[in-house]
Amino acid sequence: MEIKVIPAKPEQLKKKPADESKLGFGDIFTDHMFLMDYEKGKGWMNPRIEPYKNLSLDPAAMVLHYGQEVFEGLKAYRGKDGSLYLFRPRDNFVRMNRSALRVCMPEVDPDFGMAALKKLILLDKDWIPKSKGTSLYIRPTMIAVEPHLGVRPARTYLFYIIIGPVGAYYKEGLNPVKIYVEDQYVRAALGGLGEAKTVANYAASLLAAEEAKEKGFTQVLWLDAKERKFVEEVGTMNMFFVIGDEVITAPLTGSILPGITRDSVIRIVRKWGKKMSERSLSIDEVIEAARRGTLKEAFGTGTAAVISPVGQITYKGSDYTVAGGKMGDLSLNLYNEIVAIQYGEKEDPYGWREEIR
Ligand SMILES: *Cc1c(COP(=O)(O)O)cnc(C)c1O
Fold first, then answer.
1. What are the backbone dihedrals phi and psi of residue 164, each rounded to the nearest 5 degrees, phi first?
2. pTM greater than 0.90
3. Chain segment 174-208, per-residue pLDDT in tens
4. For the domain 4-166, what is the CATH code?
5. Which of 137, 154, 191, 255 could crosslink 144 through cysteines, CB 3.0-4.6 Å?
6. How many other CB atoms are there within 10 angstroms of residue 188's CB atom?
7. What is the largest CA-CA distance in the chain?
8. Measured distance CA(120)–CA(323) in Å, rounded
9. Which residues contact 199 (CB under 8 A, 6 or more apart)?
10. Residues 276, 258: Cα–Cα separation, whole Å
11. Is the Cβ–Cβ distance between 255 and 188 less than 8 Å?
């Protein structure tokens, strides 16, 4: 399929942010977006890059009523020499297809998706910020657009990609966060949608996160839905604990999102010769380790922050300090390793970095 490009007219071009140090996250988008349409029986058609603009949807569009939507999140990075890189982009497109199947949506050919993405990025490459830690956030999204009320999979879909410059996640160093162990609300149950990047999971998480924020916490740590016993994820990040010399993360049983950063961390930790376990870990084991002083580190992993160290865990009204409230060595080493690969500052023995040209 040929991607048609309708470039923005000079008067449609937006003002780029003047001060990169003030870039936030998720509010600024570039001049263009990629779109394509799907019809059952015909497949994907009409791939195009157009000026960024509002979508026009029928108020009965099925996404608005039954939540058929999947999305992805990845970044493009500008190296010191100006080279542009993506980090494991194919994995995002493959994961989007897995999410799509779970909510009865069509797949997008990962090669085509990546070609479309690269074309869009190159067209808007002047929007990619230059300072350290900044990047271009990429949001591939698919929605059901068929106007119809009645619960069944839609027959028509829209896939689009929007991109926008984002600031350095850590402005004053990697400050450890306080997390609240959520033992009432749940995010996802086994057999549910937890492993899909689809809207319902995020709506389900909002109230717990708001209540935790009111109490002064940055995020909630989710426990399993059945017993409220095993640790799963924190906010929109996968979670790792270092107990003694074992690095532990929850296994991919179906209720947690298979993070690409999670997978990268697992592979690096193994390569570094450390004991890396994907196993069920009860909150009791974490608290017991914290009491005994064997809980060395705890951190979340995700595309936005890469590594987010945890300095305090609060469970059933008691606070437990982790790593003296500071960032642990493993957290810092992992952060430096992954960021160096992403920005092209280091050799990439894993083949994760992909140059865009
Ligand atoms: C996106 C996401 C993650 C992290 O995935 P990455 O691929 O590492 O960015 C973890 N948990 C949830 C719930 C997510 O939505």
1. -165, 150
2. yes
3. 789 999 999 999 999 999 999 999 999 999 999 99
4. 3.30.470.10
5. 154
6. 23
7. 64
8. 43
9. 67, 69, 71
10. 16
11. yes
In the structure encoding, which two tokens stand for residue 167, read together?
Answer: 């600031």
Structure tokens belonging to residue 213: 């924020």
Q: Does domain 177-342 have CATH number 3.40.250.10?
A: no
Contact 140, 116 (CB under 8 A): no
Closest CA to 144 of 203, 55, 42, 70: 70
Token output for 327: 């960032």
Q: Is the pLDDT of residue 171 over 80?
A: no
Cβ of 95 closer than 6 Å to ligand 1, yes or no, is no
Tell whether ligand 1 has an atom less than 6 A from the beta carbon of residue 262.
yes
Please write the tens of the pLDDT for every residue from 67-98. 999 999 999 999 999 999 999 999 999 999 99
Domain parsing of the chain, residue ranges: 4-166, 177-342
Is there an atom of ligand 1 within 6 Å of 75 CB? no
For ligand 1, say whether the CB of 92 is within 6 Å of any of its atoms: no
Q: How far is CA 19 from the centre of its chain?
A: 25
Check if 187 has its Cβ closer than 6 Å to any atom of ligand 1.
no
d(CA 143, CA 138): 16
Q: What is the total residue count of the chain? A: 357
Contact 200, 189 (CB under 8 A): no
Q: Report d(CA 111, CA 218) in Å as an integer.
A: 37
262 CA: nearest ligand 1 atom? 8
Among positive and negative, which fits the CA dihedral 337, 340, 345, 347?
positive
Report the DSSP beta bridge partners of residue 76: 86, 136
For residues 208 and 327, what is the distance between their CA atoms, to the nearest angstrom? Answer: 26
What the block records as the tokens of 342 is 């992403």
| Ligand 1, pocket-test mutation among 206, 256, 257, 306, most atoms within 8 A of CB | 257
* Structure token pair of residue 138: 């990429």
Cα separation, 224 vs 203, in Å, equals 17
